[in-house]
Amino acid sequence: MALLEVKNLHVSYGSINALRGINFEVNEGEIVTLIGANGAGKSTTMNTIMGLLRPKMGEILYQGEDISHEDSSTIVKHGITLAPEGRLIFPRMTVLENLQMGAYTVSKEVMKENMEESFKLFPVLKERLSQIAGTLSGGEQQMLAVARALMSKSKLLMLDEPSLGLAPLLIREIFDLIKRINQIGTTILLVEQNARMALNISDRGYVLETGIIRLSGKGSDLAKDPKVVAAYLGNLD
Amino acid sequence: MFFQQLVNGLTIGSTYALVTIGFNLVYGVLELTNFAHSSFYMLGAYLTVFSMTWLLGRVTPLGFFIGLGISIVITGLLGALMDKASLEPIRKRNGAPITALLTTVGVQTIINNSILLIFGTESKPFPDVFQLGKVYVGDTVIQIFQIIIFVVAILLMLGLSYLVYRTKIGNAMRAISQNATAAKLMGINVNTVITITFLIGSAVAAISGAMMGTYYQKIDTLMGASVGLKSISSAVLGGMGSLPGAMFGGFIIGIVETMFAAYVGSGFRDAIAFIIMFVVLLIKPSGLLGVKIETKV
User: Which positions in chain B touch A99 (Cβ < 8 Å)?
Assistant: First the structure.
């Protein structure tokens, strides 16, 4: 059984159909990437899984249970977290307080453990614990958003554009981190503009186009697929 | 004379502070100006005196505290009900902030008119069950109860600050105020936390109402309206959403108003709060202790 299974999911904003019946699954331990142009429905998919949007039709099965009508707060308790696009940190709280908010649903002991683990992954955050989060640089805010999403020890971590707006060196660092987070046992669903790097670290990928899944396959195969290369990756030759 | 005015001003200021603290608690979380807040203050006073004299028939300190307890519970629950019944549906439909604002004006009218209907238009005596007497410092007379009001204002400010900055529910409140979507993603049940904020804010307003009733020894159906407008000026002066700001704003408005009435003329005293508010908005729009909210684009 897949950890997460999305079946025939339809989501609309008023009369605009953002998702028109998508199907995909994420197995335990995998990194799965959704790629697609702006407006393809990638973020909509994640926000709907998270309970921020309500589907018009379809099912979202998490460990076999339909969560498509549950509240975000309940979904977090099930073990799914989202590091949303545009960071969405708490700007007037310190780095430490932001991380504590990430551990809102778990006990203090678990929080301490997770905090130690986060510091191993993000040593820069440990140096800035008492800094007000809104004054961090863009890259640091991004790391904080990812670290905060890891604080509840979720089974499934969804990352929406984690490399958005970062310098090339930092992008590499973020992707290395994603691989390491996956290796310590977290299943990852990734949405990325940076399709080439995302597909290279992914087990599988799906290509979304205006609310429909056009292609799917192994990450490395998709990265070589001529249609994907032409549409999303560009030709380097 | 000067110190006497200072004492009186601090007492009135404490009233404003007590009401503004609850008002700012709600504003801090929702950025919503809750016009109904002063009505909960008035309701708290009416419910306390009603429970004490008519329900229990005990005009004693014990009767006062039981009556106050009943009043706190009912007023708090009505505050929570206000959010559940009238504001939560607006949030769920992503209504405009102005809709929520007008709703609070509507709730204010409902509460005020209900009080008129149930308790009548004439002012009601509010027996002072404590009879604590007074102390003389030089030629300044200080009623013991004035000191108590002042101390209660400070204790409530400290208590609520502890709640907001040191407890789990307080962290959730601050998270919601900074980014409600991100707060949801942390697993916070945003609607429940907001309802609890209204419950606490209204309960605190009930305490203020009962204290003021005891101090003036009468209550009337206009007590909410006058204090409500002053508490909004206090909030603007101290800093919208700031709990220490609410206290200092209230003290300053109360003192300036009293001094103005004593040395310049009493006809203008109600206007002075608003003149202060205008000046603050021109010079320091975020208020004395307010935080300037910078949005990174």
Answer: none
